[in-house]
């Protein structure tokens, strides 16, 4: 394959279009519909998506739950400020973390949070400067974390979140993510009920989103980028729903890039999804042939990010960048708390000019 350049996925985004706060009504965000074959776009309100889902289609939702993984504390003895971000539970009370300021947090140092409700010792430094930390507490760790932790909002969101639940989907179930699967934030329980009443199947999968999702691509040659690893799980029930949909001619529509990466990782070359759990480092960029996914509901992503590359693999780079330029002209809201896109082959569905 010819070299794929990071700069091929650049677009100029005015800072004021980066959404800082969620809308009061999740489903009132805007929806840009992009025909993946023709590049045509149409503008809607998100709740109208129900009109473009067909009986027999399947929505794939990621039911991971974000943990309040940001801990603010101090270094024992010096009282110096420290920030710890929980990335991955290694075993028991040992977590892989991101620590600031890194230079002052060495193995053997002890940390204190919440006036001593939670204590920790730094064990060692691992790849990319992350720290392994052993936590000490009384009671249940998740309850202590719920009391002391903050939601680990992306670096481009500077406003403080008033309600922790607004960085969770309404169907979030299994704790383990350091970031939300944000395409799902637009759904309300009422909208999901309407979708099911229309005869659309819903399959829940789990992928615990890591902070690697925000890691920039550093290499100009995209193919040299190493994807972060994330844990996923697919139940027999979910695999059966997805496989039955494909067999009966329905569309498999992923809500978010995380759902897409999950089912594409868990499928064989014939397009059959297999139940089970594993870690995935799948990197989807133009030239990739989708095995299961037919359509995608997603937010607007960062320039030169792996997520823009994934979307471009589905709809073509030129179509995607043209749609992004249109969204910027129309003052759409970008990134985690922003508006959404529905990318599909709309075929005979009449899109309004």
What's the gist of this structure?
This protein has 353 residues and is of the alpha/beta class. Helices cover 17% and strands 27% of the residues.
Write a structural description.
This protein is of the alpha/beta class and 353 residues long. The chain folds into two domains: 6-66 and 163-344, QueA-like (3-Layer(aba) Sandwich); 70-148, Thrombin, subunit H. 17% of the residues lie in helices and 27% in strands. It contains six helices and 17 strands. It has helices at 141-148, 189-197, 236-247, 257-265, 306-315, 317-329, and strands at 30-35, 41-45, 58-62, 64-66, 70-75, 81-91, 94-100, 110-113, 118-125, 131-137, 174-177, 201-207, 230-234, 252-255, 276-280, 295-299, 340-344. The strands form three sheets. A nine-stranded mixed β-sheet has the order 2-1-17-16-14-3-12-13-15. The protein has a six-stranded antiparallel β-barrel with strand order 5-6-7-10-9-8. Strands 4-11 form a two-stranded parallel sheet. The longest helix is centred in the C-terminal third of the chain and has 13 residues, at 317-329. It is globular. 38% of the residues are buried.
What is the total tally of β strands?
Answer: 17
Count of discrete alpha- or pi-helical segments spanning 4 or more residues: 6
Order of helices and strands: EEEEEEEEEEHEHEEHEHEEHHE
Q: Let me know the average pLDDT.
A: 94
Question: What profile does the largest beta sheet have?
Answer: 9 strands, mixed
Rg value? 21 Å
Our estimate of the beta-strand percent is 25-35%
Quote the CATH topology of the largest domain: QueA-like
Tell me the helix content.
10-25%
Category by helix and strand content: alpha/beta
General form: globular
The H-level CATH homologous superfamily of the largest domain, spelled out, is: QueA-like
Q: For the record, what CATH class of the largest domain applies?
A: Alpha Beta
CATH architecture label of the largest domain: 3-Layer(aba) Sandwich
Q: Separation of termini?
A: 36 Å
How many domains, in number, for the residues? 2
Spatial sequence of strands, sheet with the most strands: 2-1-17-16-14-3-12-13-15
């Amino acid at each position: 394959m010819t070299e794929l350049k990071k700069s091929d996925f650049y677009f100029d985004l005015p800072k004021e279009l980066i959404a800082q706060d969620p809308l009061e009504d999740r489903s009132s965000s805007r929806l840009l519909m992009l025909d993946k074959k023709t590049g045509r776009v149409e503008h809607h309100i998100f709740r109208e998506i129900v009109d473009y889902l067909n009986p027999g289609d399947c929505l794939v939702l990621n039911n991971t739950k974000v943990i309040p993984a940001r801990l603010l504390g101090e270094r024992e003895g010096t009282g110096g400020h420290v920030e710890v971000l929980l990335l991955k539970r290694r075993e028991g009370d040992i977590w892989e973390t991101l620590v600031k300021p890194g230079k002052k947090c060495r193995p053997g140092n002890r940390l204190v949070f919440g006036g001593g409700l939670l204590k920790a010792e730094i064990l060692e430094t691992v790849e990319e400067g992350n720290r392994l930390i052993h936590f000490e507490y009384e009671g249940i760790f998740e309850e202590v974390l719920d009391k002391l932790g903050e939601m680990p909002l992306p670096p481009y969101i500077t406003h403080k979140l008033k309600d922790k639940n607004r960085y969770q989907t309404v169907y979030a179930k299994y704790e383990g993510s350091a970031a939300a699967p944000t395409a799902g934030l637009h759904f309300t329980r009422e909208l999901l009920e309407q979708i099911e009443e229309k005869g659309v199947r819903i399959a829940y999968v789990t992928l615990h989103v890591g902070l690697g999702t925000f890691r920039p691509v550093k290499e100009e040659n995209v193919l040299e980028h190493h994807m972060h690893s994330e844990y996923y799980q697919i139940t027999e029930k979910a695999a059966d729903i997805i496989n039955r949909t494909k067999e009966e001619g329905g569309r498999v529509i992923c809500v978010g890039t995380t759902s897409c990466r999950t089912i594409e990782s868990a499928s064989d070359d014939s397009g059959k999804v297999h139940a089970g759990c594993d870690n995935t480092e799948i990197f989807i960029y133009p030239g990739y042939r989708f095995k299961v996914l037919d359509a995608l509901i997603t937010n607007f992503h960062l320039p030169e990010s792996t997520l823009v590359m994934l979307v471009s693999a589905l709809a073509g780079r030129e179509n995607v960048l043209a749609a992004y330029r249109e969204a910027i002209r129309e003052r759409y809201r970008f990134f985690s708390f922003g508006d959404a896109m529905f990318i599909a082959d709309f075929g005979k569905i009449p899109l309004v000019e």
